[in-house]
Write a structure and sequence with these properties.
This protein is mainly alpha-helical and about 325 residues long. The chain contains 14 helices and four strands.
Length: about 325
């Protein structure tokens, strides 16, 4: 979309934020509405812990064949190839992957496991009662999603877009023969892959350590994207980081990474919770603004009417999803 003026950029950034919010709320609404489905999400898929995390994340975000541990490090540079290879070897022993030459490929069992997981999440999302949300709203939302993905695929940035390229080669859900709201979940994951390519470009230019970038961003969510915030303690942040990618002694590594941020006055600790200070927020704001500017510069050039339509759909959808989440949480109590 056209982000050549400050107001246009602010509008585009809000649309992107709300697109992400819709994906997150869609998953949260499905989870609180179908607690039993969440408890049985991996039933029959005989893999747990780090192996399960890597199977799902790598299966949906990296090539199904010819996947190397070094590819994973490109997207999650706070990890290391040796730790990833060790888990992949476990997946080979369990029958979910094979090793061919120096690269890995998912077996039919591995591909089926990823697809079963996707289908179960999609089923819970499809079962949501969103009241008077119109089918035209869903159709239009998915059309906008696809336009963004197509524009990103056709606009290779100077630094490359390996995470997006890997995502296109991963295990994918069935084609959209019939548009369904759950497809938005998968579409946003694809757009986020392109966003992570821009993140890595900015991180390198700023010479920020990979784990510092990750942890600081998780804390930034608390103030700027609370619906994405998942952790505020050292233990929670370490679990969050190692859930994305394996690395040795995650809690000790995170503590060592946070120490200079605390000493510099960018992070503070309050009764066991970690938060960015005003200075830390300002620094992160600058970086996140640059990431979004680079991503949005590659988006489609929508008309004012198209932008208004997307704004209308997102406002209605996010409002309905919040209603379902509140109702589900109330019922749980």
């Amino acid at each position: 979309m056209n982000t050549s003026t400050p107001s246009a950029f602010a509008e585009g950034r809000q649309l992107w934020t709300d697109l992400q919010m819709a994906e997150t709320l869609l998953f949260q609404a499905a989870a609180v509405t179908h607690p039993e489905g969440m408890r049985t999400l991996f039933d029959g898929i005989d893999v747990e812990g780090p192996c399960r995390n890597l199977l799902i994340r790598a299966g949906s975000g990296f090539p199904a064949k010819g996947f190397r541990p070094e590819d994973y490090v490109v997207r999650y540079p706070f990890s290391n190839a040796e730790a990833i290879r060790a888990i992949l070897e476990e997946l080979v022993e369990l029958g979910f992957a094979t090793l061919e030459a120096d690269a890995y490929a998912w077996t039919d069992r591995g591909i089926d496991a990823v697809r079963i997981w996707m289908e179960r999440v999609a089923s819970m999302m499809s079962d949501l009662d969103l009241g008077d949300l119109a089918s035209d709203d869903v159709v239009d939302l998915l059309r906008f999603d696809r336009q963004v993905i197509e524009a990103l695929a056709e606009s290779e940035p100077p630094h490359g877009s390996p995470s997006l390229r890997f995502r296109f080669q991963g295990v994918r859900p069935p084609a959209e023969a019939r548009p369904a709201l759950w497809h938005h979940w998968q579409h946003v994951w694809t757009i986020l892959a392109a966003s992570e390519d821009e993140e890595e470009s900015v991180r390198r230019e700023r010479s920020i350590d990979p784990l510092t970038w990750f942890l600081r961003r998780q804390l930034w969510f608390i103030d700027r994207r609370p619906w994405r915030a998942r952790a505020s303690s050292l233990e929670g942040l370490a679990a969050r980081a190692v859930g994305y990618a394996p690395f040795d002694q995650p809690q000790a590594a995170c503590a060592a990474t946070l120490k200079p941020l605390i000493e510099a006055g960018d992070v503070e600790e309050r009764d066991g919770d970690l938060r960015l200070t005003e200075a830390g927020l300002a620094a992160c704001d600058r970086d996140e603004t640059e990431v979004d500017a680079r991503l949005l510069d590659r988006w489609p050039k929508w008309t004012a009417d198209e932008t208004r339509r997307l704004r209308e759909v997102l406002d209605r959808l996010n409002g309905k999803l919040l209603e379902r989440i509140r109702a589900g949480q109330g019922g749980a109590r």
